[in-house]
Structure formats: structure tokens, C-alpha cells
């Protein structure tokens, strides 16, 4: 080791005179430079040793004011190493991002040319540094600065200073104003707090405005700025700033005086108030500054040598130098760490095994273990010992009693009485054990300690660690001596959106629970951005949290998403949506009401802005209460603006809906309520101008006269459409692209979008820097790659899909990169991650334009559509940019290929310019996805009759044969389905009649079995299909599906001998049948009884008669008799809670089962003629029991379930 001292700033080792090369080339060497005085160092340059193979490839820099308590210089607060040389001749200069102010600096070699030795020529660059310093002893010392009497209050006040703390708590500054208002700048457990005091008594608890910084008691200089601009406060500690707005701050005459209060122990440097150097004024004995107690204008620091245990290989071995006359032992030290567990001290007992100690944290208990085998387990309740603060440990053994004390002034001691003397035989091991120790003199029952230690004492004598560093005594490995390298990775917190940060010595962790965000840093929202996005994920109406700006600063908000067949409405409620009536109140001329919404101001504004259309109902009911100009409402963003138009009118018109339509009750006025009539009237309508929404308050006047009355109703805010979700562009060439300003995502960046393509590769996005870059691309038809470089070399995250991605369907990509990891997700596949280097660059520095759909080189461009592109929560307007860019088209049609599967129950997907909707016209269901059953409760007198065609329509072509007349009403097959729930037996479920006295009837017979009757020939009796399934009238939900197909083979024992056509169907009846002509007596009696129970999702071919009756009674050919009430009785959720709902499926042809034996591999559906008669194929699916079977030709049943019970017909 060589120590070189220079008294000038710029010194030259870059010369042909050789350079520095230590005798030993290992990581325990360093080069120390003494600049003679504190200097501002801005750059260093290195070169290899002249004429040799000796040069450094990487090194560390450390700085100090005193030659002790070194501080490692870090780039970006993370990277500790500097790049060195690649040969002996070239010069590598590195400019420090933040200048270092110090008198001493050390250079530690990390790596060097493997074919040579450590060799170095060095030069530093900088400039002189001057300062004024004052020191306080932590007792009664301080400075008081009095403002000049009569000095006017300023709009802006600034206080700047540097401080070096020798104790972790104390008050640095007080600024007192009038009326007891004041600001305190206090150090508390190593954090800097800005407190607001209100009241003249000291007993008043201060309000914490800002907390910033951590580990500020490290005996290094820290820069502080406190700035007040009217009611705005900024606190800056080193490089980090927090802002706070407080109205009462503007009332502080900032300050009436400033004081560095008595209990701060440390030094202040360059204390400036609005440019006035208060320390210089104090040194010059200015009358405005008063000195209290023991104040010195220098900064004397005690020498305290700390050591840093950096990893599992670290240990410190100290010899036992003294022996107490009592044969006992006394050991003391201090430690600080973030880890929950680690070995602190272990030593060997004479012929008794070992004694060792560790520290850990479990919930609210701190445990110090000192054991011979299991000797002691001592718990210390209180604050955690892994909080990064210094904690003291004392171990004393005297006269057979062992005492362990942790934080002597704050905690209790623990004692034990071992059966043997506790003494140190030879050595003490701190933090860990040597890897090569086979003597068992160092026992390590716990993980190695990672953290800092200092103030080692043995029998009250302090150990000299500098001698250990110089290899004169003891031993060590992987230690940083004369410095504490602890880093607070949670200050400032990398966890966003309120995530809670915790840490160990090497990593941090963000707890994102209850924040609404996820990921390694709680950056990404776990919610969708709109109701529209929830719909396209397959959700139906309900309450949802939406996050309009994704990872941006706006919090998620709870809204109701009303998803209809036409639009998806976002509904935001306020505190009063009911019709509210007002009566005259004596002395009250106006009534004012304010509406509080469930969403905050910024949430409302963002939700309205991104919606395509918004509306809000405003109703004003009046009786002898004049409206304009005595009444108005306030609406719009922020505090809103006074609006004098009413629902249904346009902004600025000063009218109501009736005024625009010309139908007001008094044509001399533009609003009904302006007529001042004795009878009740109203002005109601929808407000649709987004810039005027939401309605924030309502003022109603003219309610004080006798007989005056008014009522109002302001509905919830409703919006539909998501302009961001459907914002898309189509790239039709590989050379086409869109460009946007540079993307700024230095510390955290998330990018999300949807794409669809038929190409197998292409770049979605690219942004370049000098060396850094970020890119997302489709590398193959099944793989998406997220690649980037922040200065540590290129990294990639890949996701492989099992299905092709160039299928012209929408696929979702989400990439995120933060200081901890990078992640990539494709559709619903598992997230792929790539951890960031533990000690590397983490600032992403880009400077080129952001390219979308291509690259700067115009190669590997993307062909297809990109939609809903968001970067850090901000949506890029692809459509607007595409309008002015050749080769790119705004918008992208074709969504049913991706979302069509959401349409259920025969719903048909219909394309829209922005999205799709499900057409439920051919489905018996309704709802946004045709998923909601349409059900009704029937009474015995209820009848729903659907008429297919009136008789006069049948005679329009009377010259032709009847078969052609009825061709569009002559059925060669039926597809019938319905669900029912009833306790009635017998009961008619459905009846279809014909003008030829033919019919189809589905019923429950008196034996509680399903029965299907077909009469397809008026000259023959009805043919009956009976099920063996029992107990259908049990109040449970059952579903029946019947399919009849002509020209198919019949089943033995059940032949429909008709020609297979259902001719000239007339009507379909649910419930009571009022026209029973042509029915046999038994069916006519049953038809007259009606049906009591529930019918649901009734479907006959393309007709949904129950849906038509309930939803479209005025436009459908339906006739309703008796009570018909829509209900959810057809929903499985409404089933009898005391009996489980069963599901079974029946499948059979038109006939009864033959032998009932399974027939394997003989499934046939081909048609045939038997005896010259055309037969048909009938299949029935029946749900209600837990079995499934199918019957197929040739006239046997194949059981496809594991049940022995087979139905017969």
C-alpha cells in the first residue's frame, strides 16, 4: 500500500516516468491522494503503467474529508465501479455526474490485465472549494437570526445549507412567523422532516408536511434546500425533491427568525437565507445574528472506524488481547443492517464447545441468540433491529453471570447463569467464519452477517481496525474497512402508487397489496382502463374499478358498467340522484345544493375526456316558481362554470328543450318553468355537452313566495365509448412507420398495445439513444421479443406462443422495465421476466424519435394493425398521426374474428368501426353477449300466442297449389328449445298449431314425464313420444331441446308414418290455449288448464316468442292474455336453494328404445326409405338429471355415460 499526498488539484502521473504499481496485485491495494484541502473534484483520468502490460480494467473511487469514514462514489446511486483501460497507453477519462467535494480520495483496483499487474497513471480535474462552517455540540449551542424590523413579506423564500450529523436526531432549523405559525426542519432517526407548527405553545403537536432522505447520520455532508413560493413548499435533500401545498404556509412571515436549535449535534455549512450567508454574519458578529452556547466555526469529527460486511464470505477475526482478573469477558460493538438474520459474534469457550450470537427479527420481537448448544434465547420487544439504525451490543461475563445488553439506553438487559465460566479462549469472529477454517474454532449456526459494525471493544479497550487493515493484527476477508457502505434502497421509495417498500442488504421488495397496482415496483395497474375494455374481456354489467391512465398518477375509481346490446355505459354516481322536493322556507330566497361524486376531480375529468359521448339527466319541476334568471346550475371541470341552459338544450342558448322544440306551455318563454304557472310543470332533458359535465351544483330561486314549490333531479353521469381503446392505425408496408417525440421512461417504463397481422415478423416499436435503446418486435410467427439496453449491454425478454400470432386476430402485448426487472406478457400467457443487474446502470437515456410500426433504418417494419398504444399510461393518438403519414391508414376494421366468440346462444357478431356488438335477434337470449335468459312467470290464465302469418297473406297466391302457398310456412324439420320450472302436473309447455289441423305439443303428463305429441297428418291420430325420466314437476329448472330432421332413418317401435312435413303452421302458444279446434279431448282439456310456473328461453326455429312478448310486444305478432311477468326464474341462480340443480342431456330419434343394449361403432345418420314411406329423425336433449345418452340407428341405443339406467319411449 502506498499513500501519495499532493497539495495541488491537478497532479500528473500521466508521464513516461512509470506510474504506480504495488508489490502485491490483489484487491486489498489502494492509492490514496491528499489534495491538502477540500476540493471540488469533477473528473478522473487513468492510464496504464508506462512501457508495461500493467493497467486497470475497473476500479472504485472513495472520498473523505478527514482520511477516515470513506464514502464510495456511485453513479446513478447504484453503480460503484468505473471502466478502466484496455492497454497501457490510451487515456480513459470519466466525468463525475455529480462532483465530489473532499480533501482525500482513494482508488481501489478491482480488475486488471490478467497478463500483467496492477499499474496506474492518474490525473484528477476540479476547482477550489470554499465554505463557511459552524459546529454545534448537541447541547445548548445555536444561532438566532433576527429579520430587520419592518421587512416586507416576500413571495418567495429560500434556505439552503449543508449538514453533517453526528447523531441521528435533532432540530436543524426553525422558522417562526406570526400568530404562532412556524416551520421546523428536524432530523429524526436519520430522516429529514419538515414540520408545520400552529399555536404559540410548544405542547402543540406539529404537522408533518414532508419526510425525505435516510441514513443522514452517516457523518457525510448532505445538501438541503427549503423553498416557499406562496403556499407551495419544496424540500430538497441531496438530489431528491418533495413538494407540498399548504395554504397556511403563505401566512408565515418566513421567517421572523431562524435558529439552529440546541439538540442538533453536528456541523452546518454555507447556511444561506435568501442569499444572506448567516454563518458569515455570525463570524463577523453581525447584530442580526446571536450566538448561543458553545459554537465553533470549524467541523471537528471524532474518528470512528466502521467496517462493512458485504457478503457471505465476509468475516473479521480479532484476537483476545487482555484477560480480566476475574476470568470473565467483556465485548462490545455496534451494528446496523437491513437483514432479518445474521451472525454477529462467535468465539470458542475453553473445553466447553462454542458460544455464538446472532440477531434476527420476527414480527415485533428481536432475538439475540447466545448459545452453548442452546444456552440462551433472549427476546427484546420493541422496534426492529434490522431498521438500518445503529444498535449497540454488550456482552459481559463476571462471576458466573452472563449479561447481554442491546441498545443500553433504550432496552432492558437479559441475564443467564451458565454452569461454566464464559471466557474467550483465543479469537473472536465477527460477521462470519473463514471458509478454510477446519478447526471448529469458528462456529456459524446462522447466515453470515451483511451490514456495518463499529466501536469494537474488548474489556473496555477499543480495537484498532486500522492495524487490522494493514495486516498487523487479526484477519479479515471481503470487508470494506473505514467505511459503512449501507444503502437505503427504499429512500426514495422505488415502489409507486403507495406500495410499501421493504429491503434486505442486497434487494428491495414492494408490497403492492390494496394499491390497485402490481409488478416489481407497483407500477402497472391491475384494472382495465374503461368499461369498454372490461366488455371486450367478456365481462357483463356490474361494478368495476377502472384506471383511466393505467400506470399514470390518477388512482383507480369504482364505477358501474352498464353493458347493453348497443353501448357500454360507464355510470358514476353522486350523493343525490333522487327526485327532491323543495317547499317555501321563510327568509330563504334561494336553495343551493352541491353534488359529491364517487370519483375525485382528476378521475372525473379523465373519464369524461376519454369517452366518446357523455350525458346526464337534469330535471327541474316547478309550481309558481320561476326559473331563469333566478335559477341556474354549475358544471364542467374544476370548480365548474355557471350554466343557464337546461336539459335538452344547447350550451349558451339560455333555453330548455321545449324552447328548441317550440312546444313550451307559454310560447312567450323558452322554458316551461319561466311561465310562473300555478300548476306543476317541468323542464327536463339530457345534458350532452361534455365540456359542461358533470353537474356540480344547482341553485333554485323564487321559492320563497306562498304556494311556490320546486323539485329537482340530477341523474348520475353516464358515458360510453373509449377513444383510447379503439385508437388504431394500419401499416400496409414494411417501410411505413409513425414517429412521435422521444419516450421518457428513465427509471420505469411500461408499454401496452394490441396488434393483429398476417405477417410473420416486424418491429412494433423502437426508440434509440447514443447507446441505450428500447424495442418490441414480432420476431417470428409465434414469438414476441422485448429488448433494451440501459448501459449494461443488451437484454431480451421473450414470450413464445403455442399458436400462430399472425392469424389476423387481436393480441395484447404488455412490456415493463424498471430498476428491478423487465417483464413481457402476451395475451394471457405467463409473464416472462428478466432481472436487472444488481450493480448496474438503471437510467434509460433515449434521444431519437419514437418509431411505431417500423425502425429508423426502415427495415423489418410491421405490416398490420396496432391499437390502443399506451406508454406510461399516456395513449398515443395513432389515428391523427396516420392521417398525415403516407403508407399508414387511420383505424383498423375487423373485430369479430377476435371477439366474435363472446357472442353466445346463436348471437351474431356485427362489425362496427370501433368494436363490435352481438345481434341477439335470432337468439332467445338477450344481453350484451346474448347471455341473459329471457324468462317469465306464468299463471293459469296467462297465454302468449305468436302468429306466424295471417290468413289473408296465405291467399295472395291462390292459383298455385297449397304446398307452394304454404312453402315458407311448411316445415321439414323443427328446432325447439325451452327451459321450465313448475310444480304442475299435467301441464302443457308449448303448442304449435297449423291451418291444416296439424300440431306439435310438448307437455308434462300426469306421471310427471316429458311427452311430445306430433300430428303431421290430419287424417291420422297424433303420435306420442314419452320419456322415462320422472319427477319433472319438482320445481327445479329443466331444459328441453327437440330437433326433427326429415329424410332420416327412424327408430324401431316409433315410426311417424306421415310425410314428414309440418304444413301451414299458424301460431305458437305458451300457457293457456284459447283455440282448441282439432285437438283430441285429452289435449284440449290440458290446454284449457293453462300453465303455472316459469318458462324461459323459448326458441322455435328462428322465432323467440317469449322474448318477443316481453321485450318487443308492440312490434311483434304476439297476443298476450292474463298476467305475464318477466323474472329471473329461468336463471340457475334462482334455483331452489334446498335442492341441487341437476343437468342431463337426452339424445334420441323419433321412437322408443329397443333392446337398450349399447352398440359400439355403429353411429349412422344417413337417410333411407323404409317400405316406400319417408321417415324423419327426431333428437331430444333433456337437462335435469345427471346422465347423458344418445340413440342412433339401426334402432339401438348407445350409452355414452357410465349409468345403467336407459330411458325408453
Ordered list of secondary-structure elements with their pairings:
Blueprint: E1 2-5, E2 31-47, E3 56-64, E4 71-72, E5 81-83, E6 92-112, E7 121-128, E8 133-137, E9 142-146, E10 156-165, E11 170-176, E12 182-188, E13 191-197, E14 207-212, E15 222-229, E16 232-237, E17 240-245, E18 257-259, E19 265-273, E20 276-277, H1 278-283, E21 289-292, E22 295-296, E23 306-309, E24 315-319, E25 329-336, E26 341-349, E27 353-362, E28 365-371, E29 376-381, E30 391-398, E31 401-406, E32 413-416, E33 427-430, E34 451-458, E35 461-462, H2 465-469, E36 475-477, E37 479-481, E38 500-503, E39 508-511, E40 517-518, E41 524-525, H3 531-535, E42 542-546, E43 557-563, E44 568-572, E45 580-582, E46 590-594, H4 601-610, E47 613-623, E48 632-635, E49 641-643, H5 657-661, E50 681-687, E51 695-701, E52 709-714, E53 717-720, E54 728-731, E55 738-740, E56 749-756, E57 762-768, E58 773-780, E59 783-789, E60 795-800, E61 811-817, E62 821-826, E63 832-835, E64 850-852, E65 864-871, E66 874-875, H6 878-882, E67 888-890, H7 896-899, E68 908-912, E69 915-919, E70 935-938, E71 943-947, H8 951-954, H9 962-965, ...
Parallel strand pairs: 1-2, 82-86
Antiparallel strand pairs: 2-6, 2-7, 3-4, 3-5, 3-6, 8-19, 8-22, 9-18, 9-21, 10-15, 10-19, 11-12, 11-18, 12-13, 13-14, 15-16, 16-17, 19-20, 23-34, 23-37, 24-33, 24-36, 25-30, 25-34, 26-27, 26-33, 27-28, 28-29, 30-31, 31-32, 34-35, 38-39, 40-41, 42-43, 43-44, 44-53, 45-52, 46-51, 47-50, 47-52, ...
